[in-house]
Amino acid sequence: MSTPHDPITTARVCNKPTPTHPSRKVTAFYFFILTITFLCGRHLLLRPSSVYNSNNNIDTSKSTLSIKEITTVIESNDNDTKITIPPLKDLLDKNGKVINDISWMLDFAIIAFPKSGTSFLKNYLNETEESFVYHREFCIKKPSDVTRFVEIYHEVHLRFLQRQQEQQQQGQGQFNGNQRIKFGLKCPGVLYRAYDLKFYKKYFPNTKFIVGLRHPVLWFESFYNYQVGRNVTLPQSTSNLIGKCVHHQKVCTDRARFHAALARLRKTPMVERDEVDLLFGTRYESNYHDDNHKNISLQSQHEQQRALLSSSREHNQENDEVPNHLLLYEVRQLHQNDTSKELSNTLRNYLDIQHDLPPIQSYKNVKPRAIDICDDAHANVRRVLVNHGIDAAVWIKEYLMKSPTLEVASPESFVRFLDSWSVDPCAKPS
């Protein structure tokens, strides 16, 4: 049962009878019920308080409008505004294939790197009545994810519009006739996967991206400890995590090369040798291979560089930039009063939210740590991560920030935090 502080409500209720005598038939029945529960569970929706009744639940039985009756007309005192939500059958065919424009369904996506404030932003933007973020991570990696997104978010759009109409009729709520809620999702790590971006480019070119960044050394420590806390087995020696991720591990120093991941958006020319050298870490990468592998590694790297330069010239001719606008923030901007206020205002303007967002409350997660990154045992991995941070900060400042589709929260503090990436946070003051 929901409490006044519990924003999760159940859109569909799955009833489970409890058998008293276990048997094979009962076991099969349990399996059937669990399957139904799982399928229904994907319709558990988190909603801001604006869609609750006095008991914090949606009461559709007393509604003056059923979902089928929503004609998408909202009247205001100034003029009549129509918000059109087409039937689901006009968006998906019987096989779940998209057959119409669905770009209007997703206004923004929090795709920051893991452990860079994604959960905080999701919860923060759900505090306002003007935005909605699905309560679980919602990643779009394959066609079936697009289908699932349309099915779930179509229902969400309808329910919010229904609530808006009821508030309009009762003279309640903050909304007027020409407003609509901003719908978003959270999926950290999108920039590590090229195929995610292809779906955004194809179906959601107008969706605004929000990406958080973090000092690579502190990011590595947080992500390592997070993975161990989830019972993921990682090498005790972090030196074994230098370079690319192997054996399906998600923690490695290459994942702290945030600039290389951001480059997938194709928002910079990538035709200058200096820029390509930054993206490949040419300045220092050869130092991290032993003599037996150095020549092979450098040869492979040079081939990749030549391929990137060639493809970049082609992409500039074909204009294959990912069109989505991008907002960057550094996670420490969440924790200082002056910068958090600017970040709040930037988010409001970026998402076109009309009312002020609530103040950002600084937070600190106190959890057991598997490693302390400042221990001497991790000196090698810190050295690599600081080098990644130097190149990432230079590339972001000299190349990415020139993109007309990029915004940063509080540019002065953002650049100040980027500059600190060149310093090992564990270094003792001299």
Notes on the structure:
The protein is α/β, with parallel strands linked by helices and 430 residues long. The chain has helices at 24-41, 118-125, 143-170, 194-203, 216-229, 258-262, 273-280, 291-318, 337-350, 379-398, 411-419; strands at residues 8-10, 44-46, 73-75, 80-82, 108-110, 131-133, 182-186, 208-213, 326-330, 406-408. Helix content is 38%, strand content 9%. The N and C termini lie far apart (57 Å). It contains 11 helices and 10 strands. A 6-stranded parallel beta sheet has the order 6-7-5-8-9-10. It has a two-stranded antiparallel sheet with strand order 1-2.
Write a concise keyword list for the protein shown above.
single chain; 430 residues; alpha/beta; 6-stranded parallel beta sheet; two-stranded antiparallel ribbon; 11 helices; 10 strands; disordered N terminus
